[in-house]
Structures
1.
Amino acid sequence: MPYKFISDIKDFKNNNIKAVRKLLDRLREDLWMNFINITDIDELAQQTKAEKIELFEDFSVDNSETKHCRYVGMAKHLESDTYNYTSASVFSITLADTLYYSSRRHILLTKTFKVIAESLGLVTKRSLQRYIKEINLIKLFLNKHEYIPGHSCLLRNFRNQNYYHCLIDNLPKIYHLNQEPYRSIPEINLLISGKLSSAEEFFLAKILPSNVKIKFVREDCCYHLEKCIFVQPLTRWMSGYLPRPYLEHFAEKALPQRARNRKNRIFISRKSASKRHIKNESELMSCLRPYGFKSYSLENLTVEEQAELFYDAEYIIGVHGAGMSNILFAEQANVLEIFPGSEIIPHYYFLSKSLGHKHQLFFANASNNINEKAFEVNVTELMEILELDLELELVEDLSQYCLV
C-alpha cells in the first residue's frame, strides 16, 4: 500500500509538471503573438511600389494516373477533380530594409517586425505558432541587428534542409538570379547560416552566377538587410515538379557533359534507414538480380558518384525517401516508387512528370502508415508491375551490368 501511494504521488507530480510546461508554452506563444504581426508580399509591394517579377507563365499538367490513389493529408491541396496539376506563381521581388532571422526556418520580417508570410509558407497568423520556439525574442527585439549592405538573397527556406529539399526546392531558386535585373547587379550576397551541405557545395560551384557570392552568417541571429531579393521556390509544397526551362539550364550547368549510357538498373536500399526499410529486401533482390539490378546504399556514395550513377539510369526502384531525389539526374527512366501503406506522397511522382520518366507506384500494405519503420512487400505483385507496366525483361548477358 505505501508503494502505491508513493507511485500515485509521483504520477500526480509528473502530470502537473507537464501541465505547467504546457501552460508556460502557451503563455509564451500568446506573448509572442502580441508582438508579431503578419504581412505578405502583395501588401508590401503595394506599400513600397516594389515590382514582382514573374519567372514563368502558369501551366497545368495531366496527373490522371493518380486518380485511384489517396494522397497523404499534407498533399490534399494537390488533388483535383479534373486531375490537372497547376503550377504555383513563381516570382521574385526586391525588398528594402528587411530583417532576416537565421533559424532553421529562415524567417524574413519587415523592420517593424511583421513576419513576411511567404518566407514561411504561412496563410494564417495562428499557423505561425509552430515556429515560436525557434525564435529568441531577446535577439530579435533587444539585440543590435548586424547590418548587411547591398543585395542579399536566401538560399534555404522554411522547409526541412534534407537532400530532397536541397536539390528540388532550394538550389532551383538560384535560377531567378540568372535573369534580369539580377544578373546585372554587380554583387549579390547569398546568405548561408552554418555550413554548406555536401550537395550544396558540389552544385553551387556549378550553377552559381559569377556575381553571386556566398556569405556565411551565424545561426540563430538577426540581420538587417539593406536589400533582400526574395525568390519563390520553383516547386509547390509536396510536389517536385520543376519547369522545363530550369531543367534544361540545370542539365547544361550541373550534369555530366557526355553521352548517356542508359544501362544502370538501380535498387535504392534503405537497410540503414530509421524508417521505411523493406524487411524482405534480400528476397526482392534475388528476384531483381537476374534482370540486371544492383542494390545501392546511397549514403556510401558521394554526391558526384550519385549524379554519375543516375545519369545512366534505365530503371530505378526505391522506397519513398530522399534517395529518390536522384531521379533528377536521369532521362526518360522507368521508375517504381514503393510506399509502405496505401497513401501517396507525390513529391517524386510530380518530379518524374517534369522529367519525362515513366513512374509507377507500388503500395505495400493498407494497414501500414507512411512512416512505417519496417515493412514487407509482396515480391510477386511488385515483379508483375515491373514486367507488365514498365516492360522489364530478363537480361541474357549480366556482364554488361557488372553483376558477374
2.
Amino acid sequence: MQIASFRPSDDRGEWRVNAAMASTLMTPVAAAARLSAGARAVLRSNVPFASMLGISRSQDSISMRRGPDDPDETIVVAPRQRSPEAAQLLTRMLSLDREFCARRVLDVDQLLDLAQERLGAAPFGADSALHLEGIRCLAEAVGRDGAYDDLGRYMASHYIYGWIERYVQFEQDLAEVPDIVEVSVARPLFLIGFGRTGSTFLHHLLALDPRARAPRLWELQEPSPPPRPETYQTDPRIGRLRAQSEFRAAVMPDLHKIHEFALHAPEECQLMMWHGPQHMILGLRSPDYWQWFRHLDRSQLELLEAAYKRQVQHLQLFHRGGHWLSKSLAHAHFLPVLFNSFPDARIVRLHRDPCQIIPALASLIAQLQISYTPRIDFHDLGRRMLELFEQSMERMMQADDVASSDQVVDVLFDDLTRDPAATIRRIYTTFGYDFSPEFETRMRRHLQTASDGRRFKHVYTLEQFGLSHAEVMARSEAYLAWVERRTGANLCRS
C-alpha cells in the first residue's frame, strides 16, 4: 500500500493530501483516528488499530514488540533521525483530516477559522490579543526554521491547531459559565524543577493524597467540558487517550520507557499554559518564539498567569479537592508573578546535578522532536537545553524575593530517591498539609509496586550534545552556590 504524501498544490505554499492515497486510507483506522475535538472521531479502542501497528496493549501501559534482531530494548538512547515507519504513521494520521489538510500550513487565521467552523464562534476576551500574538509568533518561527521538513511543518501546524481548539473551547466555556472565575484555589502546591530531577516521581506520590487535585492527562488534552466527579473514572476521554497513547508508542516507541505515561496517572499541566517553554519541551524547535516569550514584560506575564489560574478554576468547576497539585518547569518562568494570582501558593523546588539533567532532558526532547524534524542536531539541542537551564534556574531563584520561608521547600534528588516518605513528610509539615494515614498507606503501597516494575537504562552524555563538564559547571556556578547556601549540599561531586 502506498503511503500518503504531501505536495504543494500551488505557489502560495498550501499543502494537500495525495488524493490517490487518501482514498486508500478510508479504512476502520480512518473512522477511528482522533484528529480534533471538532471531529471527535478518535482512534477508538474498539478498532483493531493496535494490532495493525504491532502494538502490545495493556490497561495502563503501552509497549512495542521488537523482533529477535532488534537491539536491546532495555537501553534507551536519543534518536538521530525520524524513522521511515514513523514518517508513514504521521503522514497517515494527517491525511485523515481533509479539512485540516486543505488549510494553508502554519496559517493561524485559517486554523482559527477551521476551529470555529467546527466548534462555534469564540467570544475572545480582552487578553486574547497577547495569546494569539504568541501562537502566531510560534507558527512563524517554525515556518522560518530550515530544520523542519514538509511533514514536520504540517505536524507543527497540527500541534498549533490543537492549541487553538483548546483555546476556542475554553473561551466558549468561560462565556457560558462566568462563575468559573469564582472557583476557589486555596493553598495550591506547585512542583518546579528542570527535567529529570525526580519531579514526575514526586508528583505521582503527592497525587496519592485523597485531598490533592492533580490533573490527569486526558483532562489536560480535552479540558472541555470540565470533568465531573461522578464520571471522573469512566469519562470517554480516557478511552480516547488510550488510543492516542497507542499511536504515540508506535511513532516514538522509546518515549514511554524514559517518561512514564499512564491513563489514570497525573500529568504536568503545561498544556494549561498558553505560552512558555512547554512548546520547546514538547519537541518544537522555536528559538524565535522563545525570544518573544523571554522579552514579555511583567504585566504580560501577569496576564498569562491569570489565564492559567482561570484554567485551574475551569477544571475544578465541578470536581475539586483540598488543594490543587501541579508540576511543570514552565512555572519557574512565572515565579516573579505567580504569587499575584496564587497568594497562598506553596512551592517545591527540585535540584539535581546539572551535568546529569541537561543531557537527560535533551535526550528526552529528541524523542519528541522526531515528529517535527527529520534529523536531530544534537549540538544545537544541547545548546538550547543549557540556555533553558540557565534561564529556568535564574527565575527559580527569584522565588526567594517574593515568597516567605514557609511557602518554599527545596528538595534534593538524592534525598527524594533515598527516602521519599521522609521527603513528603517534610513538605507537608512545612506547608501545614494533613499527612493522613490513608495517604501514607497509598504511598507505601505505590512505592512497593513501583520497586517491582521493569526498569530501562537511559543512556546519554554531555559530549553527545556538544557540551562539556567544564562549560556546564561554569554556567551553573551561581545556581550551584545558591543551592549550597540554602541546603548545605554540593550537587556536583565530581
3.
Amino acid sequence: MRTEAPYRPAHPRAGTLEIGAHTSIAGGAHHAVDEQLEYGGTCGQIFTHSPQVW
C-alpha cells in the first residue's frame, strides 16, 4: 500500500505569522530583544537612525 508523505513547507517557518512590537532600546538593544521575547515576539527590526533624518 502506498501512502503519501506528510506535507512539509519549503521553509521551516513558511506559513507562520511573524509577531513584533515596538520596544525601547534604553539600556541596550539586547533589552529590547528580551522584552520582545517576553511578549511572544518572533521577529524584530532595529532602526540605526531616526527616519526623519536625511
